[in-house]
Write a structure and sequence with these properties.
Length: about 70
C-alpha cells in the first residue's frame, strides 16, 4: 500500500496488523512514519512482535478480535 508492504490487512475493518521481528527494535522512527501514513489513509494499525505470535497466539488473536469489535 503506497510504498509499503503490509503484513496483513483487513479492508472491511480498515485494520493493518504488523508482525515485527528484531530488526524493528531500532526502527521505531520509521515505523512511526509508516503508522502515521497508514492512519492518514484511514487505517488502524496494531503491531505484535514475532515472539508474541509464536508464543502467545491466543493472546494475539484476542487482541485482533478486540480491535475488530471496535
Amino acid at each position: 500500500m503506497g510504498s509499503y508492504i503490509l503484513d496483513f490487512i483487513c479492508w472491511e475493518h480498515r485494520l493493518v496488523v504488523e508482525v515485527d521481528g528484531g530488526q524493528h527494535a531500532g526502527a521505531t522512527d520509521a515505523d512511526a512514519v509508516r503508522t502515521a501514513w497508514l492512519e492518514a489513509q484511514g487505517f488502524r494499525v496494531i503491531r505484535f512482535w514475532n515472539t508474541d505470535v509464536l508464543r502467545n497466539i491466543d493472546g494475539v488473536l484476542l487482541a485482533i478480535a478486540d480491535e475488530l469489535s471496535q
